[in-house]
Amino acid sequence: MEDGQHMWRLAKDSAVLDLNSSYSYILWCRDFSATSTIARIGGEPAGFVTGYTRPDRPNTLMIWQVAVSSDFRGHGLAKTMLNELADRTNALRLETTITDDNDASNRLFQSFAEQRDANCERSALITPDLYPDGHDTEYLYEIAPL
């Protein structure tokens, strides 16, 4: 559970992720450690991926957040973590949601799909009319088969 504080800091420092409460990251580490990971380089927290298997589709790994410290970007760490989680969970499908303005995540998941020789379908999932705070559309990426 101690990794939750590092995940919260990495998410906060990213300046692009929706920051959840520190409490939620700590609970995430307790309840979803099998489908999440944190990377350390030289003992320093360098990045994380949070995910869960969908209750109605247990072979689908839903990725919630991906963060890499600015000190460690550009070296493929995010894709390495995604591959590790996909392999560890034996997922047949991977899903995530991304806004149009998140170029890094859009490139990451397209590249992940290409590397896995998987189809990557994109469709609007959560539109602004569903949000109480004017959030941008979250597009669902469905990547399969893994």
From TrEMBL:
<dbReference type="InterPro" id="IPR012772">
    <property type="entry name" value="Ectoine_EctA"/>
</dbReference>
<protein>
    <recommendedName>
        <fullName>L-2,4-diaminobutyric acid acetyltransferase</fullName>
        <ecNumber>2.3.1.178</ecNumber>
    </recommendedName>
</protein>
<feature type="domain" description="N-acetyltransferase">
    <location>
        <begin position="1"/>
        <end position="132"/>
    </location>
</feature>
<dbReference type="Pfam" id="PF00583">
    <property type="entry name" value="Acetyltransf_1"/>
</dbReference>
<comment type="pathway">
    <text>Amine and polyamine biosynthesis; ectoine biosynthesis; L-ectoine from L-aspartate 4-semialdehyde: step 2/3.</text>
</comment>
<dbReference type="GO" id="GO:0033816">
    <property type="term" value="F:diaminobutyrate acetyltransferase activity"/>
</dbReference>
<dbReference type="InterPro" id="IPR016181">
    <property type="entry name" value="Acyl_CoA_acyltransferase"/>
</dbReference>
<dbReference type="InterPro" id="IPR000182">
    <property type="entry name" value="GNAT_dom"/>
</dbReference>
<keyword id="KW-0808">Transferase</keyword>
<comment type="similarity">
    <text>Belongs to the acetyltransferase family. EctA subfamily.</text>
</comment>
<keyword id="KW-0012">Acyltransferase</keyword>
<dbReference type="GO" id="GO:0019491">
    <property type="term" value="P:ectoine biosynthetic process"/>
</dbReference>
